[in-house]
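Lecture notes, unit on protein representations.

Consider one protein chain, 216 amino acids long.
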Amino acid sequence: MFFSDRVDAAQQLSQSLQRRKGHRPLILAIPRGALEIGRLVADRLDGELDVVLVRKLRAPSSPEFAIGSIDESGWTYIAPHARAAGADERYIEQEKRAQLALLQDRRRRYTPDRAPIDANGRIAIVVDDGLATGATMVAALHAVRARQPTRLICAVPVASPEAIALVRPLADEVVCLHAPEDFGSVGRFYQSFDQVEDEQAIRLLNASGPRIARPQ
């Protein structure tokens, strides 16, 4: 176990990103767990915090297992193992619609009175609390790259070697503190890995950015 909790992970991760301090980086967290990490990283680097809204596409018989991912525009990544996991074309289309609807709802909740912070011409750092398959990060990096940052960085406390190999070609830089061969799952590398709810995520986002309404 490498981290006591997400705060500990964020403190360690921010140390590895210190050379970005003073460059006004834009920290983009993947909700919801990564907002706790993104909040602290943004504070330590004197950057701004925002969300990049993406969702994993869930395997039919194992909702925690990703067979792909989708971003707000509807762009989709389908993993090579999707068919082997039992996802046919009909299932994938249904799952895409379900996750896109959830993304639209989250956008209304998280930033109801403002547009996403513009990443154009800025250092953009996409953070998550860990990568298992890397599928969700694929969609996040694709979404942020489309906004034309000057440099795109993927930063995570822990990841599987397979996930690192998947996302490395999509970022200008990958910062990962640990990539153990015997990965298993993200949660096993945290002593405390509590669920982050929408209300807490929105408070974290509010702490430095424009004031936004809490969900009703």
